[in-house]
Amino acid sequence: MTVYYHQIRALIDPEQSDPLPGGGRLQDVSIILTGRVDGVPDRPAGITLLACQARELAFELLQLAEHADRERTHPS
Fold first, then answer.
1. Is-contact 35 5, C-beta < 8 A?
2. Share of the chain above pLDDT 70, in %
3. Which pLDDT score is estimated for 74?
């Protein structure tokens, strides 16, 4: 079954970090998906990513969005 989420939030939660040996912190990026089915809030879905994973996902999303825009304006 496919679930369609209507809202996506990306955030940095200070509670989702780990201390590093040098005194810094390894900060994760959280992605939260929420939506409604027939007006009833659906269970949210979430994932926590390392910064490098969040960057890779953001790059892939940007590429897909650019491709989708090109297809919309210049159909083959």
1. yes
2. 92
3. 67
Q: What is the mean pLDDT of residues 67-71?
A: 89
With a cut of 80, say whether residue 54 has pLDDT above it.
yes
Q: Determine the structural domain holding residue 14 and report its residue range.
A: 7-73
Whether 51 is covered by a domain: the verdict is yes
Cβ distance 27 to 48 under 8 Å?
A: no
Q: Is residue 1 part of a domain?
A: no
| DSSP code string of 27-74 | E-EEEEEE-EETTEEPPPEEEEE-HHHHHHHHHHHHHHHHHHHHHHHS
C-alpha to C-alpha distance for 54 and 24, rounded to whole angstroms: 19
